[in-house]
Amino acid sequence: MYFIGIGGIGMSALARYFIAGGFDVAGYDRTSTFLTDELKHENCDIHFADNIRQIPGNFKNRKNKNETLVIYTPAIPENHSELMYFRKHNYDIMKRSEVLGLITKDTKGIAIAGTHGKTTVSAIIAHILKQSDLDCTAFLGGISKNYNTNFLLGKSDFVVLEADEFDRSFLQLFPYLAVITSIDADHLDIYGDKKTLKESFKQFANQIREGGKLVIREGLDFNGFKRHELEQYTYSLEGEADFYVRNLAIKDGLYVFDIVTPGKTIEKVHFGFPGLMNVENAVAAAGVAWVLKVPPETIRKALLYFNGVKRRFDFQIKTDNLIYIDDYAHHPKELKSCIHSVRELFPGKKICGIFQPHLYSRTMYLAGDFAASLDELDELILLDIYPAREMPIEGVSSKIIFDKMKLQNKTICKKNKLLDLIRNKNFEILITLGAGDIDKLVDPIKSILLNKNHWA
Description:
It contains 15 helices and 21 strands. It is globular. The chain has helices at residues 9-20, 34-41, 57-60, 81-88, 96-105, 118-130, 188-191, 194-206, 276-291, 296-304, 332-345, 360-374, 399-404, 418-423, 442-452; strands spanning 2-4, 26-28, 45-47, 69-72, 92-95, 108-113, 137-144, 149-152, 158-163, 177-180, 213-217, 231-236, 243-251, 254-260, 266-271, 314-318, 323-327, 351-355, 379-382, 410-412, 429-433. It folds into 3 domains: 2-94, Rossmann fold (3-Layer(aba) Sandwich), CATH 3.40.50.720; 106-304, UDP-N-acetylmuramoyl-L-alanine:D-glutamate ligase; 314-452, Mur ligase, C-terminal domain (Protein-Tyrosine Phosphatase, Chain A, Alpha-Beta Complex). By secondary structure, the protein is α/β, with parallel strands linked by helices. Helix 2 links the parallel strand 2 (26-28) and strand 3.
């Protein structure tokens, strides 16, 4: 198995699946990360230059090409020399989503779709199933803190995975059970408009196997969808649905609530993963577990001991004087939810956010929505756009968000100047936000804050 883009969170999970299966695995990625370091420790041959000569010899030996599968991510450009080499010599080549489709074809795939919330819901579902008699294999879009990995190997037929709408990848999946968390405008460079995006989600739901199950957030304008041979359920944080929250309170830093189900209410759930959006994510996961007949007591206990996902409302510093949180939020709805959750947990404290926009196209289409969400902060430090797979778009920069904002206490800062800026500021609450490479700044920021406040 040869991976082009092996260091991505989804690709690395897939690589671990094949390593666990005893396959010879190698690959390329643009940069070295902790994920590629871990794969190297698992005897995976990885290089970081787009160079055909660095492909290991047994993968380039064309006598073996019928025994070799090349897997690539859509983020890889079409003119990538290694991808072109394998195409020229007629190797079997598949996108990651196609491979996931094959893996789940003959298993009970549990596919979580939505423009946000996928990773957290997937991680909670996987955790509950791991703590139950059902077990599961899971491909996660983040690092589970309970298991310190993005891949879990199980012994049952259940496979938990994220159904990614980018590049219409989720249309390669034909799951046994699907969850839809949200259908907000996103990836409009792919879909053109929200109506087309919604139609793609409907097509995904139509690919649930006959006799399968669908769990969808109440209130989506998608709710008119109906297939009579499916078991269909709704979930909600506020307002009644098949699964919903009642008696929500905060006690000793934990959310405490009841989860009402179509059967027995799961009472006095204690959930320590912060953020109201994560309470809603927990309800979705509990709904899936209930549908799969996991006992209520197992669901309650698993939620109590769920530790979260790295870069999802991830506390780096938590003292009486300073809170520092790192979060993957990169869509306006996610930003607003994160900021509101921080305000709920720490009322009266001043919140400063450092935001790195992700993608030129997303910034161009959603600049006004980003501005409105970031206006919820008390202070903003705005970084340049992280381009990911895209080339620059003329006239599109962080400044188009900046100029639309009403907040007065805001600064545009180059990434290489950020640490100096932080050294000269004091904070009550600091949040780093974004899906680009802002995560590489988390440890340096944390170190500066600890040294400044003599907590090292």
